[in-house]
Amino acid sequence: MRPLTNPIRRYAWGSRTALASLQRRPAPTPEPEAELWMGAHPTAPSLLSDEDGSIPLTEAIDGDPSAALGEAVVAEFGSRLPYLLKILAAAQPLSLQAHPDSEQARAGFAAEEAAGLARDAPVRNYADPYHKPELLVAIEEFDALCGFRDPDATAALLGSFGVPALKPVIAALEAGPVATRLRSAAEMLTRWPAGDRTGLVAAVAAAGRSFSSRGESYALAGDLGRRYPGDVGVVVALLLNQVRLRPDEAVFMPAGNLHAYLAGVGVEVMAASDNVIRGGLTPKHVDVAELLRVLRYDVMADPVVRPTPVGPGVVTWAAPVREFSLVKAVASAASTPVSVPGAGPRILVCIRGAALLSVGSQVRRVTSGESVFVPATEPSVEVSGDATVFQVAPG
User: Which one of 80, 124, 181, 278 is the catalytic residue?
Assistant: First the structure.
């Protein structure tokens, strides 16, 4: 068990207070801080420390993959940590986006490599050949858009805005099988004539502001229209479920799921990939054709994933993937140590209080914002003290 020093990703939508407060640093920070990365992603690996200094976690794994990851993980995923853990702090909405499945990621990455696109090219969709399912658990109240809602409900909502230009979209949402209706509406909006977009978005945003007292969807349209004038993503967002997560509630983003984070702080774990295909609400590259190709046009009836107890002081969240499983352990000074289930390579991060982590004969104290890496050769971890700790391990 060794401590990690983790990179902070500074994106414009990040918070100037959340991550600094978590790590007990002065706030507000000079720049927005969006994500704290914990893992071995080659873009920004954590540093693994001991008495002799620090090395990137990627190098430590490369030096002895079997010891760090375990033979089972190496056999299934190769000599790479299969997950990436983040603390995400959104002060502004992120882009509308989706992630590819494994086959799409392999094919898309190979095609962009063959085309000679630089790995950091702004028009690149596929940074690697891996899929990116992800799970986000709210630490505090968190607003998100996740998955298509029932097209009948969406048709009724769009009709209530009273915008004549939306009539073809509403008609598309009302005719045919569900998947066809969702696909038609998404295609119509994302391919809206460029010269007409500003007028459409302005009309929808104005109606949203006028009707904001009717509900959150109207307020969302008004807010997004103010932030992204002329971006049809403002209207596409209304096709999706709008959820407000309470602490410990989560959303799971499978491949092809259109989603966007709006505001809040959460623990996010994903397969170790950086493949993002954007559809709007961003100044970054938007690839409508590729987005429409990878989307899955299914209704997500209940996007909220609720915690499941798995032991005293420990909960988990259902995520049907092999790359990761996430648990939360809450220890109390008055209780016995909490045993955290899980094996293989693990990362644990403290998000509240001060914890004593015990692994075999090793004991290490971690406080809010600090994390450790536990290699596959080590037994399960026990948490004591007065603290909340998240652990990610292979699924």
Answer: 278
